Amino acid sequence: MSSSVSLNTPYAGTTTGSSVSTATTTTTTTTTTTSTSMADTFLTLLVAEIQNQDPTDPTDPTEYVTQLASMAQVAMAEEVATEMNTNAILMSNLQVMALGKMVGDPIMVQTTTLEVSDGAIQGRIDLDDACTQVDIHLTDAIGNDYDIPLTGSAFGPGAVTFSIDPADYGIPPGDYSVSVVTDTGEEEVPVEVAGVVTDVRIPLDGGTPLLNVSGVGEVPFTMISQFGVPDDTPAQDVV
Questions:
Q1: CA distance 72 to 69
Q2: Do the Cβ atoms of 146 and 171 come closer than 8 Å?
Q3: What three-state secondary structure class fits 161?
Q4: What tens digit of pLDDT does each residue of 142-189 get?
Q5: Nearest to 128 by CA among 192, 185, 193
Q6: CA-based angle 56:62:63, to the nearest 5?
Q7: I want to staple 122 with a disulfide (CB 3.0 to 4.6 A). Which of 25, 36, 194, 235 is the partner?
């Protein structure tokens, strides 16, 4: 009868009633301990297992030792994960504070877009192969293209700096995508542009902080390629 179902009732053989009792006890324990830690749940289940084992065929004690060792490893892993999460939050906060202090600082960022205004565009590209012709290619929102050839007889491999005055090429102010075309057909040449950090925005969804850089617009802080801007631009690379 139901009044005989209890964790303290000794094992009475492999009867149907005993099997139901064990299943009911396990389910109840699991349900009522959802808000407790994993360690508490494990210990509760372990005690229930010991109380309800078959006295004629008891569980090997080494199995309990193995289970306890496994639980200790899980608990340690939980503690390490919690500590790592705490450290990650701390590092994120320190990172945001450091980014806030960058307002007004000159930097270089890798980008595929530009905000063209009246000022010159200073930047750098990185070529994998040597070539004899390099064009900076700008495209506006409605598809107008502007090709700006860099002066010089040879370029790369390696870093090639440039300085472009948009007015010299009739490029009106606005937003543009930027790419590089070479006579060797090199694809996806990284473009870096110099600018000044005007503000830092922290997305409300906890995403990557964004820097608003003059001449570029908003970019993730991970796109910073250099702090400060070099003032030595080789003459043969200047447009």
A1: 5
A2: yes
A3: strand
A4: 999 999 999 888 898 999 999 999 999 999 999 999 999 999 988 889
A5: 185
A6: 75
A7: 194
